[in-house]
Every structure is written in structure tokens, then in C-alpha cells.
Design goal:
heterodimer; A: 300 residues; mainly alpha; 2 domains; two-stranded antiparallel sheet; 14 helices; B: 508 residues; 3 domains; 8% strand
Chain lengths: 300, 508
């Protein structure tokens, strides 16, 4: 959302620009310009298309960046279609994303059928997307650095969420809490328990991944993100290896991260970061005793 | 309450009414015991439900098969992966077959699979078990709670395979109540083992050794998890002191255990060799295998520990020495995932929904034309290819035969060396004979003769061969234009094949 607007601001403040608005007011927008602007937006709707591979796309991008009137026209077309322009650059192309109630938006019910009826599945599918992003950009610097390419594997994402859940379980155990949820109030169950309970994989009759398992859910998320042009598959190791694209970084940084953060703040949770690493291994001291005590029913 | 005197001393506050439970503290212990009890329920359940299976399966002791399965999976759990599903079924078969020898093998396999699948609980979406129990809270309110647990879980392995691992709960069901930490329990088990062996009580010693191995497996598992966590983020671990301390500690531990177990191994070997009772001999031999396995697992652990250091340095180079960026982004884990997980699922879903709605990108809606739709609906479904793509005919290139000697030469040499058992010959004579047949042949004969100087007695014994070529040096020097050294006496020894076979069957 930031870069092209910032560019405009720069363009206005430069000494030359007086002629630019004058020029745009002199030459009125022609239907051909509108068609070109719409064409650029339609390129942006094909997220896997790279500007470097398409001469027309690259030419329209150049025009967007050099001709402010055309840029405003393309922005207007996008806004009218219910799209948000994240960035327009040679590396990311015309990076647009769907506004919340646009026809292009992805709905959870369409994404996974079970998710609309089962609250646990709904949560798991959402968490999978969040976890993929967290694994792709483990440090704040990684998310901020435009040149950073994140790498992740399906099994890696699952293992790292599981580890986080395990640590919460240990902490609860240390405090002597009984975290087993009350049977009649499923909505009050701690979120980590839902993930910890779900099996991580499972054998199926036809050697496919068990859709309801956590690796199945993460696998669905990365496959979907690959279709969105956010990830690229690089190999089959550890359930499938992927790397991130510039678009994904923009999407997470400018859209999803802040939206989720706003929601979290609304719930009264204020996460504070001092810049130090947050994804910690089990605290020392309990690293060796862990196995003896974890889940031991007779532990006094 | 039979004595009237006792009622006089009842404190007044208790006479207000009977309390339902002594309090949350006592309830805590009760909850723990209820959970422990729940872990055994799936095993009892197997025997209860076997009547519902189509067929007469009451002859099988399902709980026994289930415990054996947990045992097998625990022992086959490796560092990286777990136990292979098919392998476990295969190893269960002898036990199942022994329970009902008259039944067909297919049925045995079915029983083994049924038990294993029920331990995984394939039928439920979580692939686990749930027990419901109730507790009184601090405020005296009775709450029903769900206890979720697994016995055998499926984990992803290399190449997309699915492996089995036993959970902590299952290990505890199997080895019983443990109230101590890994290290001390292991030391205790080993000390016990040594005492038992020194007193000659091998039956108990085997039990103790097996328990020591369970501890070893559990210990290795803990370290694997710790190493995996440290691998993820360099800055998240205290590389200055905590991690090196941990690694040093673990290496000390491995060295200590290695020494200890080697000592045990020597002791049991002695016990095995000195034991006169066949049963003791066999038990001691089994014990040797178990301790060897323990040592193997320790060695594996050690190599993992040694890899940790270089891995840290490489990750540190990548992460910590990069140029800092001008502005900072969101710490996705620290500011989103971590605070979200402890929330009630209802609230957490609001956050994940927000992320999902804005983090998945866009989908262009599909516009369908009626014409296309009709065509699509009328197209017959594509047959699924069961056999996969056709294999290309491999283009084979014959590798050139680069053997030093030809088959004919070998046959010729073997013919020369096919000596009568009572007529050994000098190598010099053999070489002269060989040279007359083929100028290259003496080299092969000399080679075979030198090999015969250290004849493969063990192989011949195991394979039950009747003849064995041997060569002896009696100090005579070889006088030959091409070769130097000793003029070996080459002969053939007759072996007692029948006697060896008898000895073999006795030994096994």
C-alpha cells in the first residue's frame, strides 16, 4: 500500500511536477487509456504472471511508473473492481489483492468445506496460513527486507506450531493448572489444544496426505498460496519445500499482518516486542527432565 | 461412627453438611490417576470389542497383542523417523499366530492390523482417544473435563512416508509408573542390572536391561527435540553458555553411559561364556544384544551432538551478520502466533479469520457459459491411470569385462588346485604346472595359494562345506623366476560336514 503512494508524494513535491498535472488536464483520458489501465489490472489479477516474461505487461508497468495520470487511472480501475493496490514494481508486477467484500476475495467456506461447519477446522485452517507466514518470515527484519526470500517446508511448519503448543502445555503443567477443557464449553478451550490434539499425519488408502491432519491442513494452505502466486514449490523434501515471492511479503506485511494485529488488539491482547527473538527453544533446565515428566500420568 | 464417643469430638464446621470431596488438592491426584487409568482403557476396549468383529476372534488376546505392538514400536523408534507400519505388522504376526495356530495366516494379519489401527484410532479425525472425567474446582463447582491422548501416533518421515511413534503416555502404560527423571532412573536401572548379574539372576537382569533401553530411547527423543528447537533460530538460544553447556553435558552423559554399558557388556559376555545352564546362556546372549543396541543408540546420539556446533556457526553467519534493514516489520511469531495460541479458540478464530481473509490473495471468479457447461457435463470422466506412466525402455550399455583373469583361467587354476586330501603339493610345483598351461595362470594360482594361507574357516563352517583349501609355510624359500617368498605347502582339508551341522543346530 505504501510504495506507489509514497512515490506519488515524491512526484508532487519535486520542482518539475507542475507540468504533470497540467499535462494530464490538457490531454483528457481516452477510451484507449482506460482499456490499457484495465489491461494492466487484468495482468495483476494473474498473480503467477511475471512482468519479465511478458513484454506488454512490462511496457504497461513502465507507463504506470512514468505517467502519473495513467497510474491514477489504473488505481481507479482497481478500486472500482474492489481491489487494493499493494505495489507496482518490476519485481512484483501490479501487485493487487482483493478487498474484504470484493468478488475476488477468498471465503473460508469455499476454501474448505468442513471449515464452515466445524469451528475447530475453521481455526486450524486460519492458523495454518498464519503459521506459514510466521515460518516464511521468522524475524521482523525478514519481513521488512525487500530482498529476503523465505523458505519453508510443510513438515517444518507443523513441527514449529507443535513445539509452541508443547511449550504452552509444559507451562500450564508447571503452574499446576488443569487444562483439560470443560466438556460443555468447547469455545473456551485454549486454541493450542485444538492443534496439539489433531494428529500430524495419517496413513490413507491411496497414499495421499490425510486431509484432516495438521500436515494435510498446512499442505492445503501452501498449495493454495502457490496458486495465488505467493509461494513457489522448490522440492519434495519434508512434505514439500517452498520459497516466497515478493507478492507474499507485501501481502503479509501490508495486509494480513496488520489486520490480524488489529483484531488481536481489539481482543485486549497487546503483544509487545523488544526486538529479541521470540521463537525460543524449551527453557534450559527442563530440557533433560522433560521426557520424564511430560504427559506422565503418575507424576507427583 | 459405631463409637458414640467419636461424635463428640467432631469439629463443629464439619457438621454443617457432608462435603462432596476433600478439596481441589486431593482432586488433583484423583485427576492424575483417572488420566492414567484412561490410558489403559483402549487396551481393555480391544478385548471388549473383539466380539463385534465379523468372525470368531475371542481366541485372540487383543490386549496382549496391543502391548506387544506398543513394545515393538517403542523399540523400533529411530532418531529421525519412527517404526514402519508394515514392519510392525510383520513382527506381530508370530505372536498372533501362536495364539491361534490353526487359523489361516490372512486372519492373523487381519488381527494384527486391526489392533494396530485401533491403537492409532484410525476412525476418529484426531486419531486419538478421549476420556471424560470430573473434578471439583477451588470454588467447589463440579466440572466435566476431556482428557485427550494418543498411544501410537503417525509422524511424517523422509520421502513422504508415514511412521509410527509411541507417545509418552504409551511408554508409561508399557513400563509402568515412573516418578523420577530420565537420568537417575537410567542409572538406577543399570546399577540394578550389575548387581543382578553379579548374583547370577539373569531373568531379572533382562527385565532391567530392557527398561534401561526404554529410558535410552526416551532420552534420545528428548535431545532430538531440543536440538531441533535450537536449529530454528540462532538468536533464540543462548549460544554463549546454555547450549554449549547442554551439549557438553550430553556428551559427558554419552561417554559415561558408553563406558558403563561397555563394562556391563563385558560382564554379561563373561556370564554368557561361563554360564553352564543353557537357559542362562540364552538369556545372557539376549542381554548382550540389548546392551549393544543401547550402545548403538548412544553412538547415534553422540554424532548428532557433534553436528550441532558447525550448524550453529553456519546459521549464525547467515542470520546475525547480515546488514540491518532500515525499518522493522511485524514479528509474526512473537506478536501474532504466540499471543494467539493461549486464547480461547473462539477469540483466536477471530484473529486467524482476519489473517486468512487478507492473507490468501485473490481468486478470479469462474464465469461459466451454458454451452461449455453442457459439454463438460456430458464428457465421460477420465479413467484414472492405475499403472502410472509407461516406463521407458532402459538403454543398457554392456560394461566392458575388465577382469584380470578369464573364467577359463579360473576353472583351469581351480582344477590345478583340486588336490587329493592326502597329497599336498609345493607351490613351486603348482606354478610350474600352471606356466605350462598358460603364461598368465601362475599369477592366479599364486594369488589363490596366498589366500589359502588364511583359509575362510568360519565361512566354510557356516556353509557346511566338505573341503577346504589351505596353505602352510614350512620355511622353505620359493625359487621361481616371477615370484618370491615362501614355498607354501598347498593341500586340501576334509571337513566333518555332518558334525558341523549338528554343532550348529546345538548352538542356535
Amino acid at each position: 500500500m505504501s510504495e506507489h503512494h509514497a512515490e506519488h508524494a515524491d512526484a508532487w513535491s519535486e520542482p518539475e511536477p507542475p507540468q504533470t498535472p497540467a499535462a494530464s488536464s490538457v490531454t483528457p483520458v481516452t477510451p484507449a487509456d482506460a482499456a490499457d489501465a484495465a489491461r494492466l489490472v487484468s495482468f495483476g489479477l494473474q498473480p503467477k504472471l511475471l512482468p519479465a516474461r511478458d513484454a506488454e505487461y512490462a511496457e504497461l508497468l513502465r507507463r504506470y511508473r512514468e505517467d502519473p495520470a495513467f497510474a491514477r487511472l489504473a488505481d481507479a480501475v482497481a478500486t472500482g473492481l474492489g481491489l487494493v493496490v499493494l505495489e507496482v514494481s518490476p519485481r512484483a508486477g501490479m501487485a493487487v489483492t482483493a478487498d474484504e467484500d470484493s468478488v475476488f476475495a477468498v471465503r473460508m467456506g469455499d476454501y474448505a468445506r468442513r471449515a464452515s461447519t466445524d469451528s475447530a477446522d475453521r481455526f486450524l485452517h486460519g492458523l495454518a496460513h498464519l503459521a506459514v507466514a510466521a515460518m516464511a518470515f521468522p524475524r521482523p527484519e525478514d519481513l521488512a527486507d525487500d530482498g529476503y526470500i523465505g523458505r519453508l517446508t510443510v513438515n517444518g511448519v507443523d513441527a514449529f506450531v507443535r513445539q509452541a503448543c508443547r511449550r504452552l502445555e509444559e507451562r500450564a503443567e508447571e503452574q499446576g493448572e488443569n487444562t483439560d477443557p470443560a466438556s460443555d464449553a468447547p469455545g473456551l478451550e485454549a486454541a493450542w489444544r485444538i492443534y496439539a490434539r489433531r494428529s500430524s499425519t495419517g496413513a490413507t488408502k491411496d497414499a495421499r496426505r490425510l486431509a484432516g491432519s495438521t500436515t494435510g491442513i498446512v499442505g492445503k494452505a501452501v498449495a493454495f498460496l502457490t496458486d495465488s502466486g505467493f509461494l513457489q514449490r522448490t522440492g519434495d523434501d519434508a512434505g514439500g519445500a517452498y520459497r516466497t515471492t515478493a507478492r507474499y511479503q507485501l501481502q503479509v506485511r501490508d495486509m494480513a499482518g496488520s489486520a490480524a494485529m488489529a483484531e488481536l488488539l481489539e481482543l485486549g491482547v497487546v503483544p509487545v516486542s523488544d526486538g529479541s527473538a521470540t521463537l525460543l527453544p524449551p527453557p534450559d533446565g527442563d530440557d533433560l527432565e522433560l521426557a520424564a515428566d511430560a504427559g506422565l500420568p503418575f507424576h507427583a | 461412627m459405631t463409637s458414640p464417643a467419636s461424635t463428640e469430638f467432631v469439629p463443629p464446621q464439619l457438621s454443617a453438611g457432608p462435603r462432596p470431596a476433600p478439596g481441589p488438592a486431593a482432586d488433583e491426584g484423583l485427576a492424575r490417576r483417572l488420566r492414567a487409568l484412561a490410558c489403559t482403557a483402549p487396551l481393555h476396549d480391544l478385548d471388549a470389542r473383539k466380539a463385534n468383529l465379523a468372525g470368531e476372534y475371542s481366541v485372540y488376546a487383543m490386549a496382549e497383542v496391543a502391548l506387544a505392538a506398543i513394545d515393538l514400536v517403542t523399540l523400533n523408534m529411530d532418531f529421525d523417523t519412527g517404526a514402519d507400519h508394515e514392519q510392525i505388522v510383520g513382527r506381530l504376526l508370530p505372536r498372533v499366530a501362536a495364539q491361534a495356530p490353526a487359523r489361516p495366516t490372512a486372519e492373523h494379519e487381519r488381527v494384527a492390523r486391526w489392533v494396530l489401527e485401533n491403537l492409532i484410532n484410525v476412525g476418529s479425525v484426531d486419531r486419538g482417544f478421549r476420556a471424560v472425567y470430573g473434578t471439583f474446582g477451588a470454588d467447589g463447582v463440579y466440572t466435566r473435563r476431556d482428557y485427550d491422548f494418543k498411544l501410537i501416533e503417525e509422524v511424517p518421515g523422509y520421502g513422504g512416508g508415514v511412521y509410527l511413534r509411541t507417545t509418552d503416555e504409551a511408554v508409561n502404560v508399557l513400563v509402568g509408573a515412573l516418578d523420577t527423571d530420565v537420568t537417575s532412573a537410567q542409572i538406577a536401572a543399570e546399577v540394578k542390572l550389575e548387581i543382578l548379574i553379579s548374583r547370577g539372576r539373569l531373568a531379572d537382569a533382562q527385565l532391567a536391561a530392557e527398561q534401561a533401553r526404554y529410558r535410552t530411547v526416551q532420552y534420545a527423543e528428548t535431545l532430538r527435540k531440543t536440538l531441533e528447537a535450537t536449529r530454528r533460530n540462532v538468536r533464540a538460544v543462548d549460544w554463549l553458555s546454555a547450549v554449549p553447556d547442554m551439549i557438553a553435558e550430553a556428551l559427558d552423559h554419552v561417554a559415561d553411559r558408553y563406558r558403563h554399558e561397555n563394562a556391563i557388556l563385558t560382564n554379561i559376555r563373561k556370564a554368557r561364556d561361563e554360564a553352564e545352564d543353557q537357559e542362562h546362556k540364552r538369556r545372557a546372549a539376549e542381554l548382550v544384544d540389548i546392551v549393544k543396541d543401547c550402545i548403538r543408540r548412544h553412538t547415534q546420539l553422540q554424532s548428532r551432538l557433534l553436528e550441532a556446533g558447525p550448524l550453529f556457526r553456519a546459521e549464525q553467519d547467515r542470520q546475525a551478520f547480515a546488514a540491518p534493514t532500515s525499518y522493522s516489520g511485524i514479528d509474526l511469531y512473537g506478536q501474532l502466533v504466540a499471543p494467539l495460541l493461549p486464547l480461547p479458540v473462539e477469540q483466536a478464530t477471530r484473529v486467524t479469520d482476519a489473517f486468512f481473509a487478507r492473507g490468501t490473495g485473490l481468486r478470479t471468479p469462474v464465469a461459466v457459459r451454458v454451452g461449455d457447461l453442457v459439454e463438460m457435463l456430458l464428457t465421460p470422466p477420465v479413467e484414472r491411470e492405475h499403472l502410472g506412466a509407461e516406463m521407458p525402455e532402459p538403454d543398457l550399455i554392456a560394461t566392458p569385462d575388465d577382469s584380470r583373469f578369464s573364467e577359463e583361467q579360473l576353472a583351469s587354476a581351480m582344477e590345478l588346485l583340486d588336490l587329493e586330501h592326502d597329497a599336498p603339493r609345493r607351490l613351486s610345483g603348482l606354478l610350474a604346472d600352471a606356466r605350462r598351461r598358460d603364461p598368465d595362470l601362475p599369477y592366479l594360482v599364486a594369488l589363490l595359494a596366498v589366500h589359502a594361507a588364511s583359509p575362510p574357516v568360519g565361512t566354510a563352517y557356516r556353509q557346511g562345506e566338505e573341503r577346504l583349501l589351505f596353505a602352510v609355510d614350512d620355511g622353505t624359500l620359493l625359487d621361481d623366476p616371477e615370484f618370491g617368498g615362501a614355498d607354501l605347502i598347498v593341500g586340501t582339508a576334509l571337513l566333518d560336514a555332518a558334525g558341523m551341522a549338528a554343532a550348529r543346530s546345538e548352538a542356535s
